Amino acid sequence: MGDQVRILYVDDDPEFADAVVASLEREDDRFVVMTARSASEGLDGLAVNGVDCIVSEYDLPDRTGIEFLETVRERDPDLPFVLVTGAGNETVASEAISAGVTDYLIKSRGTDQFERLASRVSTAIERYREKRVERRLRELARFREEIIESANVWINVLDTDGNVVLWNEAAEQLSGYTADEVVGHDAIWEWLYPDAEYRADIVDHAGDILQGEKAVQEFETTITTRSGDERTVSWYSRAIVSGEEGDLGSVAIARDVTDRNRRIREIEEKTAALERQNERLEAFAKIVSHDLRNPLNVAIGRLDLAREQRDSKHLEVVANAHERMTQLIEDLLTLATADDDVCERRSVSLENLVEACWEGVDSRDASLRVELEGTITANESRLRQLFENLFRNAVEHGRDDVTIIVGDLDDGFYVEDDGPGIPAAERERIFESGYTTAGNGSGLGLAIVENAVEAHGWTIDATEGDAGGARFEIRGVDSKETNRP
After folding, report:
1. Helix (H) and strand (E) counts in the chain
2. Which domains does the chain have, with CATH numbers?
3. DSSP-assigned letter for residue 389
4. pLDDT tens-digit series, residues 278-318
5. Which strands, in side-by-side order, build the sheet including 412-417?
6. E strand map for 320-435
7. How many other CB atoms are found less than 10 A from the CB of residue 143?
């Protein structure tokens, strides 16, 4: 028992009550005795003070000791209750037993009755506490079993011979074998691993745990389920050890990682494919920048010499072809070397950048209206590519005097022209590399625009402008700041 035992003694005889209190506390120094003179007063004390045992006289002023016992049992079915009566009575004893009394004691003369009472109280409390511990252990065991059964991971327990002693519901669902089929033997491993050589390796892993050579094992295996499916399972297994009895077996927790491993392989394959593609792009960029640009520069130089000697409309066609080839090489290099993400960003004035980009484009007789202001956080080089290619696209596909408007949106900006516009059926294809309706276009300009937009995490949509021309809306520019009131 604990260091202190709290006892409630109920009796309307103060002289006898004092004797009981003194005797009980003298018999066992752990006893702390509180008194009450009626059942009602005892119930009040029980509600306020937690007690380990009640000792009550049968004859109480407000009810009998049995009626008091029945009220106590409604509150606590197991609390030790010792009934004391002045005279033996089989009827009273029978009623007390039926009401759930813990012990029954008849008063007698002499001090030995107090020794008997102390012994009865001590025994009753010992049994009560043992039952409470046993009940708590049963509750914990039931709670543990419920956790194991309701867990969404496979849990099994083996004894030291490798026989299954526990097989939870998740193990049943994944393997296809029920606990009734599995528990009590080790045949499950032959069912899960039909290949003898592979099974031997798995059994070695489990044996290291069971024989105490390793405390913990983490590994993956491929099991064959009852339906014949192969699933990859990740295991965490450890020994069950008792300080007194030594090794008792092992517990294993398993998760089906088939889908996870497949996703990892897919990601790895895609990553490898992207790396190979990047290597090819780098090699291509090298070819474009050196092997194509050098002979083109020679051709342009030779053309300049030829034009100094004579003028011909045929040479003008060659010059236009050179110009187109130069633009095509620049566009190819831009696409080949552009990053999918932009790390270097800073505050950029939209109005200033738009006007600077316009100056860098062969605008012919076209005009620009800038109806936006403020700043955004962006990579200036990629943003310049975006505007220059949109401007060039408008000039190449519109009239010579096309008007281009750059304006504000709530979460971004737009570029719009009053040219012929883009047919609705073509708007999904215009961002594809190589797609063009202009005879002298590379088909890469809008692909460069989309690449720059996506690298910033924005979106772009092609739609129809107010004058029927093309309108490109760039949204998702959440770092935009304007100076407007």
Report:
1. 15, 17
2. 5-146 (3.40.50.2300), 152-256 (3.30.450.20), 262-336 (1.10.287), 342-475 (3.30.565.10)
3. H
4. 777 777 666 666 666 677 777 778 778 888 888 787 787 77
5. 367-371, 403-409, 412-417, 470-475, 459-464
6. 346-349, 367-371, 375-378, 403-409, 412-417
7. 10
